[in-house]
Amino acid sequence: MRANPGGIYDRLAKSFTEMGAIALANAEINQDFFPHNFGESWSMNYSYRDCDSALFSANVFGEIVGQAHGTFIGAQGNHYAGKDPSNPTVLDDYTKTKCTIVLACPSFATPPITNLFYNQLCTLDSVRDEDKKGEIRSGLSVDAKEIAKSIRTGGDLDAIILTGPALYSVLKKGKPNGKDNNLSATSPPRRALKKRSLAAASNDDLPLLQVTSETPLPTAEKHLVWPTAEEIFVGAEYDHRLMPDFGGPVFAFEKAKLIQPDWRDVNGDLIPPWLNHKLLRPGTLVVANISIQVYVMISKSGDGMVRKVLPVFFVILLGFDRTFDFVQIYHAVLNSLWVVGGSDVLITPPVPLLHRSSLPKQNTSQTAAALALAALNFNVEQSTGASSSLAFSDTPGSDSTVDSDNLDAACDHEVHRSAKDGGLEAANVEGRPSPKKKLRK
């Protein structure tokens, strides 16, 4: 089992404890990372930098929970199609959608694993707490969408939402991306017109327009070709029809390409998006490298007028003393992901929407942290008799875990920072923290 002495939980806890601040559980806001605008000067969005003024990234771990709790890794991603299956909000070449993966504390976790996962929640909660302080001082009105959440209505914070990169390539309206950007992929090429001789005998002598092999019918479908192993790499673009649940009225793609993220299985091989449902099923134990980004959106005031807004930390620095209404969406952006413990929880194979009775309910560069995660070099063997279960479920199952000797050897060569003085404080392992009070590590 994962919780056996010397098992995956013990090795995972040891690795994350020794990483220091490049493990999210050990990082402290305004000590190890700071708010900073990495975008254009006019952008209201912001992220965080580390002590070296580089984009802050950190490592997290957890066990994947299902779609009922916010995990969306299918063809539709996190796109909300609306409540009416017969008239959905379509997903086209100009619409961006992303996968979301929700992590909970691993099943049957040991106290060190429970404490580390709890401390990850504390770090994310402290990010929002710092913004709240500025909002109170400046009288700001903010609707915040946070990274840490409760997977039980009204319950305690117990899960982390990870947001993947764009699931498909996206075209920009009015900004051609190549000469064919605004052309239909199935539109026939236009023939060059030539003037006719005025001496033509009659209309009967005029040539008839014919559809040739060079002008295919608009309804013609290209043959679906599966990529070879050599064609699967980070950033590779695939036919969007490869997703097993692609199809139905939600999709209106013509040119959009499916994009390969840096997500890997227990053997270190890339996970093609069409295998997400198998290899990232509920109960899967993963480690991931993330960056924290905050998207600031304009909100409407009570009288319907749109107000201009600024990031909270900009408002504080500039000394504004007035109310700004806006929405802040916090994202834990997935830079990379690695499965370290598989799951055999039974799943229902995904199918296109046209076979369903209703719509589903929906709610970077190599940093030190990413290098530390890569240095773990998880090599995998099938563990006989090992068991795991889906979080908050009593259903047992076998799983694949990392090889002990290879992991221990890799950990000796990790790139890590010194651990915090005094190490990790013990968290309450008998229960989860209340969202009504400030989380403390």
From TrEMBL:
Residues 389-441 are annotated as: Disordered. Residues 410-423 have a biased composition (Basic and acidic residues). It comes from the Eukaryota. Residues 389-404 have a biased composition (Polar residues). This is Protein. It comes from Lentinula edodes (Shiitake mushroom).
